[in-house]
Amino acid sequence: MPAVSGKLNIVPEGNALAALAEDYANMLANQVMLGDALTFEQLMQACREIEIQANRAVIPP
Q: What pLDDT does 57 receive?
Protein backbone atom coordinates (compact mmCIF):
# COMPACT_ATOMS: atom_id res chain seq x y z
CA MET A 1 0.00 0.00 0.00
CA PRO A 2 2.50 2.65 -1.06
CA ALA A 3 -0.10 5.41 -1.40
CA VAL A 4 -1.14 5.23 2.23
CA SER A 5 2.47 5.11 3.46
CA GLY A 6 3.48 8.29 1.60
CA LYS A 7 5.65 6.57 -0.97
CA LEU A 8 3.50 6.67 -4.11
CA ASN A 9 5.65 7.30 -7.18
CA ILE A 10 3.83 7.74 -10.48
CA VAL A 11 6.40 9.86 -12.33
CA PRO A 12 9.19 7.66 -13.68
CA GLU A 13 12.85 8.70 -13.79
CA GLY A 14 15.80 8.19 -16.08
CA ASN A 15 15.39 5.82 -19.02
CA ALA A 16 11.78 5.06 -18.09
CA LEU A 17 10.89 8.76 -18.28
CA ALA A 18 12.67 9.10 -21.63
CA ALA A 19 10.84 6.05 -23.01
CA LEU A 20 7.51 7.40 -21.80
CA ALA A 21 8.24 10.80 -23.38
CA GLU A 22 9.04 9.11 -26.68
CA ASP A 23 5.88 7.00 -26.53
CA TYR A 24 3.78 10.08 -25.73
CA ALA A 25 5.35 11.98 -28.64
CA ASN A 26 4.47 9.08 -30.93
CA MET A 27 0.87 9.09 -29.68
CA LEU A 28 0.63 12.82 -30.38
CA ALA A 29 2.15 12.37 -33.85
CA ASN A 30 -0.31 9.58 -34.62
CA GLN A 31 -3.21 11.71 -33.33
CA VAL A 32 -4.16 9.14 -30.67
CA MET A 33 -5.09 11.97 -28.30
CA LEU A 34 -8.39 13.69 -28.91
CA GLY A 35 -8.78 17.43 -28.56
CA ASP A 36 -6.08 19.64 -27.09
CA ALA A 37 -3.60 17.27 -25.49
CA LEU A 38 -1.25 18.43 -22.76
CA THR A 39 2.43 18.65 -23.51
CA PHE A 40 4.47 15.86 -21.97
CA GLU A 41 5.89 18.33 -19.46
CA GLN A 42 2.39 19.48 -18.47
CA LEU A 43 1.26 15.88 -18.09
CA MET A 44 4.23 14.98 -15.89
CA GLN A 45 3.66 18.10 -13.76
CA ALA A 46 0.02 17.11 -13.25
CA CYS A 47 1.18 13.61 -12.26
CA ARG A 48 3.71 15.09 -9.82
CA GLU A 49 0.97 17.18 -8.21
CA ILE A 50 -1.23 14.10 -7.81
CA GLU A 51 1.73 12.21 -6.36
CA ILE A 52 2.40 14.99 -3.84
CA GLN A 53 -1.24 15.22 -2.77
CA ALA A 54 -1.58 11.46 -2.42
CA ASN A 55 1.62 11.22 -0.39
CA ARG A 56 0.40 13.96 1.94
CA ALA A 57 -2.68 11.88 2.74
CA VAL A 58 -0.65 9.33 4.72
CA ILE A 59 -2.68 7.03 6.92
CA PRO A 60 -0.77 6.33 10.15
CA PRO A 61 -0.10 2.65 10.89
A: 82
Which residues, given as ranges, of the chain have pLDDT below 70? 1-4, 60-61
Contact indicator for 6, 55 with CB cutoff of 8 Å: yes
Nearest to 28 by CA among 20, 17, 37: 37
CB atoms within 10 A of CB 28: 14
The Cα 15–Cα 7 span in angstroms is 21
Closest CA to 12 of 26, 24, 30, 29: 24
CA 58 to chain centre: 19
Q: Residue 14 phi/psi, 5° resolution?
A: 60, -135
In this prediction, residue 61 carries a pLDDT of 65
